[in-house]
Amino acid sequence: MGRRGIRKEGLTELLSEIAAKKKEQSQLELIIGLADSAKARAEKELARLGEIRHIFSRVPYLSIRCLPYDAEQLVGSVSGRSRNRSFNTSFGYSLAALRSLELSHTFSISLYRKEETKPSGRLWNLDNIGCYDAWKISRGDGSSVAVIDSGVDYNHPALCSCFGSNKGVDIVDGGDPLDPNGHGTHVAGIIAGAYTDVSDSCGVAPAATLYTLRVLGADGYGLESDVMAGIEWALDNSVDIANLSLGARAASGAFRELCSLAYKEGLLMVAAAGNDGFGAEYPAAFGESVLGIAALDKFNQHPGFSNIYSTNDLSAPGVGVYSTIPGGYASYSGTSMATPH
User: Fold this and answer.
1) Which tens digits make up the pLDDT trace of 154-177?
2) Same domain, yes or no: 249 and 118
3) Which one of 14, 58, 287, 339 is at 20 to 30 Å from 303 when CA atoms are compared?
4) pTM more than 0.90
5) Active site residue 183
6) Same domain, 126 and 29
């Protein structure tokens, strides 16, 4: 065992991951778990190691961006391998307070493809899930949904009425949470897009309130710690539902712990199962705390790309779904599209 019961085997794996990533990345991000009693002092000490990007308020973790060399020194000190006495002295209090140390994994959108042709019967997805009958009961009135994604074009004619004065937040850059990718806007339209004669498109809950939490870059990729920050924002702002049309093949214990807490606090999280035909990605694979969503075509069959294994909870339309994109409309396929139904 390393310090505070951290498995040495896990630290060896972490060192291998860092060694692999430093060949292509000039900086890495770590998710560090700290003992509650020592958290405040350790945070100040760790700030000398790199840029602290997130200090999570609901779980005892922080994320820090640093040079691969410094990440290796930290892991080496925790494992007892490092002979760097200066490093051990400078960060001695933090090392004693550590209870976990993991990489912030890379997450990405769960889009399978953009369709080249417009589907006939563009609202087939609403027919297949019985949406018109559901609207007799509710159109989403009083419900709020956080779109944890690449941002949303909240000025889109079909989406502008879904947002209040608080649009959300850009967790990636700290700017405007608009959508430089298009994926989050497509997801938002499936949730709450308003029907127009021009679009022949409509969301499943057009009376719901949306928030855009941008956690992914223009390329559709982002860091696990930013996704976690998005979930904390949803909790802090009493949002009802968090839509996560994204995923990764690995996730940290910190992320699992946060999702478990969010579930207990009443946040309904729905996440894309993934599009590689294997088992569900994270966070859909977390089990009870997150609903994992697989894709269906218009014949209610699972397409070959959709992950459909036992960790999935529900399936929904995810092939040729027509919805909003910045400046217009388009048809996309993927478990990303199934999730917001």
Assistant:
1) 999 999 999 999 999 999 999 999
2) yes
3) 287
4) yes
5) yes
6) no
